[in-house]
Amino acid sequence: MQKATITAKTTAKAKDMERISAMRNITIGIAALSLVLVLGCKKQENTSEYNNSSSNNTVASQQATTNLSPEDLGKLGAEIKKHPKDAGKILSDKGLTQEQFEQAVRKVAESPSDSKKYADAYKKAS
Asked: For the whole model, what pTM was predicted?
């Protein structure tokens, strides 16, 4: 009977050691995964800060490049109205994007006198 008790104790001890080893491996895996996630997220935060600063520079450059007069914008708008399929090419020839053109037109719309100049130039070019 003592052999059976010793064998049972040895088997139980082996199972305990196996569980401890498995738990240790799982814990190491979770720690490694956590470390990878933390480092990955930290890298993304730095990248997003870089992207935000570069997009702010883009907005500033867009505002600087749309110094067309209301008359020029009116003529440009009329030309786009005549040839809508070529709108991208027309704008790029003037060094503008669609967003820059829209922003410039909104800025003109803020002033009644500039709006009148835009409308007159648009009508003449149409």
From this structure: 0.48
Residue 105 near residue 74, CB atoms below 8 Å: no
The string of pLDDT tens digits covering residues 45-73 is 555 555 555 555 555 444 444 678 889 88
Domain ranges of the chain: 1-65, 68-125
Q: CA-to-CA distance for 43 and 33, rounded, in angstroms?
A: 15
DSSP string covering 69-82, please?
-HHHHHHHHHHHHH
